[in-house]
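Protein GrpE
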Amino acid sequence: MANESTENKSAEEIAADALAAEIIEHAEEQVEVQLDAAAENISAEQEKINALELALATAKATVADQKDSVIRAKAEVDNVRRRAAQDVEKARKFALEKFAAEMLTTVDNLERALQSIDKDDERNTAIIEGIELTHQGLLTSLEKFSIKSIDPQDQPFNPELHQAMSMQEVEGVAPNTVIAVMQKGYELNGRLIRPAMVMVSKAKPSVDTTA
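Tokens:
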């Protein structure tokens, strides 16, 4: 039947069919070429995208590393600054402690002089006034450097600030009370640099009433 259909076609129809087939084939080839070209373009663009994404990821990693380095560097600088400040503070306090130790010896000597001099002798009046003025001026200077005396007379005994040299029973005085200050204590900026040497009252021994 096909042969008969072909035989029945005229030469013009056969030529037209052949031309149509050729046009279709050519179109298909063009489509394939365009598809291949498009695929190549897409592949090239994808490679560019991949390269850009890789570059972006690398840049982000670099920024993160640099940020971490900056943070660590800042922390180290802060640590160095804090240690330097602590060293300066320690040096200042140490210098003041040495200064206080030297001055306290002078204060003690002036106080002992005031205690030992005969105040009833009028000939000593000028000397006493001079010693008292020197003593008070020295204490004022020490206070400017936050050096303060600890004079716990008649106060409860505090082992953090006082050093008990002896204990004694005293009628009418509560136990554990400072009854005499042998040597004043001193503190620097609230920190003890010398305890007060004191005498402390003690309770009377209990009497055994069962005998």
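The chain has three helices and six strands.
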